[in-house]
Amino acid sequence: MKMEIRYANLDRQWRGHPDYDRHMSETGGVREVKSAARTVELLEVLAARGDRPARLQELADELEVPRSSMYALLQTLISRSWVRTDVTGSLYGIGIHALLTGTSYLDSDPRVRVVRPYLDEASQALGETIHMGRLDGRDVAYLATRESHEYLRTISRVGRRLPAHAGALGKALLAEHPDEELPQGPYEALTPNSHTTRDTLTADLREIRSRGHSVDREEGVLGIIGFGFALRYDSPAQDAISCSVPVARLTPEHEDQIVAVMREIRGKIEATAPGGAAVHWR
Question: In this structure, are residues 19 and 13 in contact, taking their beta carbons and an 8 Å threshold?
Fold first, then answer.
């Protein structure tokens, strides 16, 4: 399967979408540098494989590049610790510099620093798993997580990406954008409860706008219900917080408590977070 470049990097799935044209306009129509794009694609492929190392031919086939070119690129990245290889030199995985760069992103972000203490507060008040995520094209990237002490199964981690249409964080953020910005679909089904069409997702987003928060009823992970709240220190919102609860532990009373506490936490964050970043990132 050929690697797809994410929306923020001119995702092929979004070509023809209004934001694609806007991006090209903002960059003066400058096209990608092929070697740079290939390097990024390779790192994304290795990152997506997790604990499954790849062989040279697999990577060459997936990125549709000559084996010799892939070998040269891998050796360059290995020398800089962006890629690692095993003792036989035949298996490849993501390198430690990817972690260091990702950590730098979190450490340099003033919004993440502001939100972290409030995630602790929400976790202590509710005893549930609390997340912060950021919209990244068609996905949400998890930037901070506080795990429940009662529920030890990890459903997310910092740096994980999930489709925005299939979770509380993503739906809370999609509801902050006009419906016409949604891609046509069909959308990936992570569970039998996931939205797979634009019509059903659009109907859900209308309810979210009316309610003021999103509800993910086992759409991203079976057995888990999530409640998402967009953080409106940007317009449209790019960040959100959520609370995830096992279905077996969710009662109407606990749901009311979650919504009340998370609304209060959102208010505190929005009152504290810098209204405008010193650097306006695209």
Answer: no
